[in-house]
Amino acid sequence: MAVNKKTPVKKKKTASVKNKNKKSMMPGIILVISALLLGSLIIIFVYQTRKIIEISGSGDPANRKMEGSYPLPSELITSDLNTYFGYTDIPDFIFTKMQGASFTEDCPVAREDLRYMTVLYWGTDNAAHKGELIVNKSIAPEVSEIFYQLYKASYPIESIKLVDEYGGNDEVSMANNNTSCFNARKVKGSDTWSMHAYGLAIDINPLYNPYVGADGSVLPVMSERYANRDDRFIMKIDADDYAYNLFAEHGFTWGGSWEKVKDYQHFEKQQ
Fold first, then answer.
1. What pLDDT score was predicted for residue 2?
2. How far apart are the C-alpha atoms of 62 and 140, rounded to whole Å?
3. Rama region for 195: left / alpha / beta (φ>0; ψ in -120 to 50; rest)
């Protein structure tokens, strides 16, 4: 007698298939998570290493702090213009220092028309430094932009200090190759106020870019070797110089283009 045997029905292994699918997805999920973590670490690393230069500058009785960490020229971003190249009304402790030095009793411009500015600059020692300027409020935005671009290009500047660090003595400031702006003084050999007295002129690396009078006199006196502009030397300003072109783009006149006298360090803007 034949016996009908029932063919066993194979059960679907649904749960097993799902588990296998989950396992097959795990490497992809792990890869995505790893990529996100790696990206986060890279962002953190870049942010942490961006500000790595230790800056040191001169202090003063008011305990003005000039130390800090700042971005390299190649790492500047747009927001750094306001952060490191800003300007404000002249603080009281700065104005106290200016009185009797750069700011005289007969100064032709009011304190309210001047601004205190801090900038970064790339020194001749291939390091970053923080500098200070007093400028006329009418040119403050342009001066800020110019020094931002100079730093971004690693343009070498030896020193940027208030001329008050030298007692308001322009010749001493120049002899120290100090870049400066405001100083209530007259044009040499005249009773006319210099554009510096209004905060409308800036001298850049003056030791290497001297003033040459109509009589051939050179200031600062130790810069005679740099009066010959046919020679090649560091920090020389001419019509091919980056600083010259930046100032020209912003409407400044260069003293090196004057006819009777030559002031190769000097950039001014008439108002």
1. 45
2. 24
3. alpha
35 vs 27: CA distance, rounded Å: 12
> First vs last Cα of the chain: how many Å apart?
123
Task: Enter the DSSP assignment of 108.
Answer: S
Q: Is the pTM of this model over 0.90?
A: no
- State the residue for tokens 């290493």: 49
> What are the backbone angles phi and psi of residue 38, rounded to the nearest 5°?
-65, -45
Closest among 230, 163, 237, 153 to 194, alpha carbons compared: 163
Give the orientation angle of helix 242-249 with respect to helix 140-152, to 10 degrees: 150
Contact partners, residue 242, CB within 8 Å, separation at least 6: 150, 153, 155
**Closest alpha carbon to 208 in 181, 183, 245, 175:** 175
Q: Is the pLDDT of residue 3 over 90?
A: no
- What is the DSSP track for 185-236? -BPTTSSSBPGGGGT-EEE-STTTS-EE-TTS-EESGGGGGGS-TTS--TT-
Cα dihedral across residues 122, 127, 130, 134: positive or negative: negative
Percent of the chain with pLDDT over 90: 71
Q: How far is the C-alpha of 264 from the C-alpha of 253, rounded, in Å?
A: 11
Return the bridge partners of 69, or none.
54
Amino acid, res. 237: I
Residue pair 119/130 in contact (Cβ under 8 Å)? The answer is: yes
d(CA 120, CA 133): 11
What band does 69 get if pLDDT is binned at 50, 70 and 90?
A: confident
Q: What is the pLDDT of residues 127-155, one digit of tens each?
A: 999 999 999 999 999 999 999 999 999 99
